Amino acid sequence: LLRDQHAEIIQHARSQVYAKFPGIDQPGGGLYPPVRAEACWRDFDKFLQCTSYAAAAGVPSFTDAEGAAIMGELYTEMEVPLDAMCEGVRGLRDAASKAAREAGGDAAAGWRAASGPFEHLIAVLEGYRT
């Protein structure tokens, strides 16, 4: 289900980031120059893959502490706009949830149990701000 709507889900997340953070991709914004924005969208792509795999495996808390710490150090060093990243993951979650609801049946029922990996990833990203 998510694989079939992958591009639309990523686009929804991007739109949600732009709506909440207008100008983020302009000079002085956290996703400027364009190469930074492209890196962000690639991260969203990987986040969607990881959360999908975690949901399929039934493992909501899918990150490894060492890997999450390394990602936190990298994001801090690269001055990644964490508020925008969290908003983007919320956008991924919202679009994936909508796709599952629209598919109905097993997809909708399964989604209620599968949203945990998105919530986990948001909590991990929010933890980098402290």
Q: Give the CA-based shape.
A: globular
Ranges where pLDDT stays below 50 over 5 or more residues in a row are none
What is Rg? 15 Å
Number of strands: 0
Strand residues, percent = under 5%
Annotation field: number of helices: 6
- End-to-end Cα distance, whole Å, is 35 Å
Q: Whole-number average pLDDT?
A: 91
SSE series: HHHHHH
Classify the helix fraction into a percent range.
over 70%
Largest sheet: none
Structural class: mainly alpha
Structure explained in plain terms:
- This protein has 130 residues and is mainly alpha-helical.
- Helices cover 74% and strands 0% of the residues.
- The protein has helices at residues 6-20, 34-57, 65-77, 82-103, 105-114, 116-127.
- Helix 1 (6-20) crosses helix 4, helix 2 (34-57) packs across helix 4 and helix 2 packs across helix 6 (116-127).
- The protein is globular and about 45 Å long.
- The termini are far apart.
- The mean pLDDT is 91.
Question: Which secondary structure elements does this structure contain, and how are they paired or packed?
Answer:
Elements: H1 6-20, H2 34-57, H3 65-77, H4 82-103, H5 105-114, H6 116-127
Helix pairs in contact: 1-2, 1-4, 2-4, 2-6, 4-5, 4-6
